[in-house]
Amino acid sequence: MISTKGQSTKLKGINNMTQKIERTLAYRNKNPLNIRTGANWQGMDGEGRSGFCVFKGFSYGYRAAVLILRAYNLKGIRSIKDIISRWAPASENNTKAYIKAVVDFMNGVWRPEYVEFTENALVNLHDRDETVHFLMAMTKVEMGVTSPADMHYMRAYMYMGYDLAVTSKGFFDGVNNGE
Description:
- The chain is mainly alpha-helical.
- It has one domain.
- Helices cover 46% and strands 7% of the residues.
- It is built from seven helices and four strands.
- The chain has helices spanning 19-22, 25-28, 58-74, 80-87, 95-108, 128-143, 148-166, and strands at 2-4, 7-9, 44-47, 53-55.
């Protein structure tokens, strides 16, 4: 984006987010899944409006998300329904619609052979591709990412965030280090 006197001019190209997405709080905070403050996450650059983390880059936001999902997993929160119900509680969100959107996305965009995702399907956080596609589904809901070009752009950050998370101490041995 080129900014002149507070007005944005959209540049053409596959790696440019739409103006709608750029206006979201999640985009501005580089916090694609709207993680609230509470831990001193690696790559965190402060606190934004409404108590959401501000990250130095999208990959750090995804790293934090993967670690949060891993903490859920260690507590027995493993199904799409249980994860989304915890992530986006009904007191603040339309949780049923969020769950449906994630399930529909998982079935429509990414579906390994012979796998049908339901709200009770377990998310395998040890499978890099499955985790990234789950993050893609959540990103679609949280940020409104809809175009294939925008999703392709964000997917690179998701993979980087996943790789940063799995190299964190204790990720695979059941230790929840949180940060």
